[in-house]
Amino acid sequence: MLRRCMFLLVLALCLLGLTGTAVAETETPEGKHFTLVDEKNRVINQTGIKIYPGDIYIAADNSRYRVVEVIATTARCAYQGKEAMPTLEEVRKSSYLGREAVPVVNKNQKPTIAIYHTHSDESYVPTDGKESIDGNGGIYDVGKALAVKLRAKGFNVIHNWNNHNPHDINAYSRSRRTASTLLRKMPNAIIDVHRDSTPPGEYQTTVKGQDVTKIKLVVGRSNPNSKTNLEFAKRLKVAMDNKTPGLSAGIFMGKGDYNQDLSPRAMLVEVGAHTNTKPEAEEGIKLFAEALPSVLGVTGTPTGEPAQKPMQQNNQGAGTAILIIVIITAVVIGGFFLLNKGPSSKE
Fold it and tell me: Could you list the residue ranges that cross the membrane (predicted)?
């Protein structure tokens, strides 16, 4: 009987595992990257994120491309026209959540931003000496620069320094626990700060007379919040284009979820590449901070206590997981009684 119970328990856990991330977010080996090209073989983007057919890239000029074929490290893309973007006025007035637009931060409330780092080792070769520093990567300094800038603008900031090494396909599973813990603080947005792996020219630029790295926004298309995550990214890009023209490196929608199923305002940002300098990345992320007030509905320096209401989320994924758990539990209980029901006794 004990063996039967153990078998049913293992079966239930295996079935439950199917409700997790469908795709492991992977990257190219060190020193390699993918190149996205259009129909005329012109390079439109480079990234260290693994590319799959169906991925979407929205360029800095809002041109939308869909990956149709991947050969080795070259991704061939089809142009799909200009992406429909919200107006600056729409960005300032509201943030799209689910079916309707509603204010993100209530008047006189101090917004909260949570920051963490899935890839704790990511570093900048020209400044840090190498591209990977186990558990203490230069990426933490970039996150710190973002936190300091946001606090100076009146935000409440939670900067998490948890180590999620090693840098492998399970890093997002480990950082998921961190993100879930941070979301208990009810932040208005949660940001996973990374750096890319490309030649320096992909991100290097000058904005407002400063040498900085561009900022690329990454959205996972394999999660139930992908629509609201993308809308959040588009609003961030519109705000960047207005506040700091030239800072945006576009929006990439990749096969994966990047833990963004946890919140409609979860965002992954790529701040330069390992070939750029860390000071340039720090300046780039500081400029990115300029976009957040208008996107989160903050006009001027906020005052008061942090908002206590949780973010409205798309609960479709959570509801599905709960239903599966209930079904599995019923199967386990039913199986237990069936296995332990002996033959009917005879008089």
Answer: 318-339
Q: Establish if 59 belongs to a structural domain.
A: no
Residue type, 250: G
What's 212's domain CATH number? 3.40.630.40
105-151 pLDDT, tens digit per residue, is 555 678 999 999 999 999 999 999 999 999 899 999 999 999 999 99
Q: What is the mean pLDDT of residues 312-338?
A: 42
Domain annotation covers residue 88: no
Instruction: List the 248-254 sheet strands across, edge first.
Output: 43-47, 34-37, 74-82, 63-71, 56-58, 248-254, 215-220, 266-273, 189-196, 112-116, 156-159
- Please tell me the total count of domains within the chain: 1
Tokens linked to 146:
């973002």
Instruction: Tell me the residue range of the domain where 243 lies.
Output: 95-295
Burial class (CB in 10 A: 0-12, 13-18, 19+), 1: exposed
- The neighbour count for residue 277, using CB atoms within 10 Å, is 19
- The answer to the question of residue 223 being in a domain is yes
Torsion of CA 97, 102, 104, 108, to 10 degrees: -170
> Among 117, 33, 56, which Cα is nearest to 256's?
56
193 found inside a domain:
yes
For 341, the token pair is 């029901």
